UniProtKB/TrEMBL annotation:
InterPro entries: Acylphosphatase (IPR020456), Acylphosphatase-like_dom (IPR001792), Acylphosphatase-like_dom_sf (IPR036046), Acylphosphatase_CS (IPR017968). The active site is at R22, N40. It is an enzyme of class 3 (hydrolase). Belongs to the acylphosphatase family. Its EC number is 3.6.1.7. It comes from the Bacteria. It catalyses: an acyl phosphate + H2O = a carboxylate + phosphate + H(+). This is acylphosphatase. PROSITE patterns: ACYLPHOSPHATASE_2 (PS00151), ACYLPHOSPHATASE_3 (PS51160). Keywords: Hydrolase. Residues 7-94 form the Acylphosphatase-like domain.
Length: 94
């Protein structure tokens, strides 16, 4: 099963702070069975690490691009990372 997991670091830019973006990412990730974290950065971007099945991570990226009436992602850069065997939960970091 662990070999089926993928983990990514990502940075989202656009209208992603002050609009509930971290909560949106956390709730969507949890619904998809993903684990990881999301955090606001001083430069106005939001970074995150996400781990789960390739299919679930792809759905998360699609939902992030869709956003909602408040969230507008202008760019989403992703970088594949080594999976973590015992990762669990999805945190909003401060």
């Amino acid at each position: 099963m662990a070999k089926d997991l993928v983990r990514y670091f990502a940075r989202a830019e656009g209208r992603v702070q002050g609009v509930g973006f971290r909560f949106f990412v956390q709730q969507t990730a949890l619904q998809l069975g993903l684990c990881g974290w999301v955090r606001n950065m001083d430069d106005g971007s939001v970074t995150m690490e996400v781990q789960g099945t390739h299919e679930a991570v792809d759905v998360l990226w699609q939902e992030i691009w869709k956003g909602n009436g408040f969230i507008r992602v202008g760019s989403l850069e992703t970088e594949k990372r080594e999976s973590i065997f015992d990762a669990q939960g999805f945190d909003i970091r401060y």
